[in-house]
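User: Sequence for Hydroxysteroid 17-beta dehydrogenase 8 below. Tokens please.
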Amino acid sequence: MGQINYAASKAGVIGLTQTAALELGRHGIRCNSVLPGFITTPMTQKVPQKVLDKVTGKIPMGHLGDPEDVADVVAFLASDDSRYITGASVEVTGGLFM
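Assistant: Structure tokens for Hydroxysteroid 17-beta dehydrogenase 8:
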């Protein structure tokens, strides 16, 4: 499916997140990232149904995520409820990569 570039970019985001957290934590700045899996978006709607069915079969939650699932994690990380979380990369994948 041509995912090498996508996987490499996610690895870069994780490294950037951790480095920024190390460098900026002393200034009270938290740095976290969200790593969405297969979320129902225009991008995944272009994936052939046969491929989506195969992927969905590997997701423990049994379905693709919704954009709101990602938004909820972003809202949490941006809130004071996550005030002691930094350097984290949160996967929103329904358990796909366990």
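The chain has a mean pLDDT of 95.
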